[in-house]
Amino acid sequence: MFSMTKLDLLTSDSPGSLLLLGNEAVARGALEAGVKFASTYPGTPSSEVGETIARFSQNSGMYFEYSINEKLALEIAYGASISGLRSLVFMKHVGLNVASDVLNSISHTGVNAGLVIMTADDPSMYSSQNEQDNRRYSDLAHVPMIEPSSPQEAKDFLLEAFEISERYKVPVLFRTTTRVSHLRGIVNLGPIKRLEEKGKFVSDHSRFIALPSNSFRLKDELILKELSLEKESNSSVLNRVEGNGKGRIGIITSGAAYNVTADTVSQFDVDADILKIGFTNPLPTEIIEEFISSHKEVAISEELDPYLETKIRAIAQLKKLGSRIAGKLDGFFPKSHEYSVDIVVSSLAKAFDIKDPTTHEQIDSELPPRPPVLCPGCPHRATYYAVRRAVKMSGKKNVVFSSDIGCYSLGYYEPFEEADIMLEMGSSIGVGQGVSLATGQTVISFIGDSTFFHSGIPSLINAVRNNSRLILVVLDNRTTAMTGQEPNPGVPVNAQGNPTKEISIEAIIRSIGISSVNVVDPYDLKSMIHEISSSLREEGISVIIARRECAILRDREMRKSGVAKTYEVDLEKCGLCYNCVENFACPAISIDNGKVSINPILCDGCGVCSESYVCPFNAIKEVK
Ligand code: SF4
Ligand code: SF4
């Protein structure tokens, strides 16, 4: 979170330098590039870009919105770009799947003012369901791609990305990974650019009407642009060679892999030169040809797919270069997960028959396992507890739990275990519908409020249209909790905290013909269990909206108001059934020497554990 001082410095036009996260540097870059329009759907590891822009957008005159999904975020940014305003849209890597329909068409029509699309990829999947390599999208859409390796580059390269976008009238893909987005570094600031306040759309049917007659010609133009962009890449300052050019090995790398590769070369005294590529599509073929020609042995160090390697091997073959190339395709470098210095050095050692210098002492310290848990006071815990109880009481067997993406995904873990399927944003309803139709089993789908707006609505319409049988639990915690508490359309404030129209989830659901819709407070276990039990007896689609704000938001409010509540166990009444620990599993409750106690520092005072559905002995009491 920013102090005002840091935000003032970040938005200041005076020269200087600041310690910034890669994502904060992107936000600063947006100011320096004269971005007038920014949009996103929040997703880690890109979230801090939005968090930062949300804080300064109003004062800086930049329009910024949390769109309801990535497709819309890109469409809106494209609309602004073709109307003459520089636009930045950013998202996590899987978000680009949602926006890819737009990307693959706007690459043809082109843009007017610069349009940069930031994708924050997540090798090793710290907060994602997959580790897809979005560099592939730059080939698929035939758009240029820029990859920074540090916070300084995140800012500087963004400026260059806007220049390229405007010079060639194409959207530019700006790819970071978690280690670049979340890396901190000193960033030298540049001047802030002031651009036109208002855009103007000038109609041009030959470009902006994506009918086959236009797209046929535009595709050829796009291929021609690619040829010009290759020349640009060959002369770009974003690519550089490090070393004296006489190293035994030449290593070609980019993005976060550059950082660990450079560390490897310096820490282990590997005799190597490095070609660092920042303009990764189209590749700088001439620079690569020259670099390979001057090294008999070349390694390609890149995370995830052999993206650079496949292209570089093709260049070597076309140009008849005789150097030996080692990478993933011949099995020396791993094809999955993040790279570390140890991985790079042992891959180089295997590839080039050099002594593996990683015989340095390993620090053997086993950290105790800490499985992820829902926070104390989290309303989702109460929902999952109530669902589990109601299903058990119903005697129904083979109930299938179809979950979605959000912090409620933690319902997968013990003791709730209420996720049999979990795939991608909005999938809980669609996949649940498929399972229900195929098997006739009872399906309970869980979806968060933000995800409901993102992609749940079309799925629910589809379920209604096809007479599906489904119980849907909307876990409405009044925020987009997992990525940083961003507002969603279900709350009456926008990205900047200003009042705006609140969209009613229940009104949408009723409007598509679902009559069984009940809004319940999940802290009220009796009502929750009652509603779920009723739904389990119903046919068709029934929806329970479990509405209670996220415990973190509630804590913030309580701290502001100075009111704090906590609960304790009356040991004389406690029957030692351990239901509160084993089945409700609030992390504030633990067993010490056989006795149950509540840690007052962790307890958020929700009081759910004191209900008789959790503590049948009525032993948990509020501390006044
Ligand atoms: S649920 Fe109540 S009675 Fe059972 S262990 Fe916890 S505090 Fe004691
Ligand atoms: S009141 Fe009970 S359930 Fe709520 S946070 Fe405290 S210990 Fe956990």
Outline:
With 624 residues, the chain is α/β, with parallel strands linked by helices. The structure holds iron/sulfur cluster (2 copies).
Q: What ligand species are in this complex? A: iron/sulfur cluster
Main sheet strand line-up: 3-2-4-5-7-6-12
Average predicted confidence as pLDDT: 94
**Unreliable runs, pLDDT <50, ≥5 residues?**
none
Which outline best applies? globular
The name of the CATH architecture of the largest domain is 3-Layer(aba) Sandwich
- Total of domains: 4
The fraction of residues in strands falls at 15-25%
- Look at the helices and sheets and give the structural class: alpha/beta
Named CATH topology of the largest domain: Rossmann fold
Q: Major β-sheet, in short?
A: 7 strands, mixed
User: Which CATH class of the largest domain applies here?
Assistant: Alpha Beta
Number of helices: 21
CATH superfamily of the largest domain: Thiamin diphosphate (ThDP)-binding fold, Pyr/PP domains
Assembly of the depicted chains: single chain
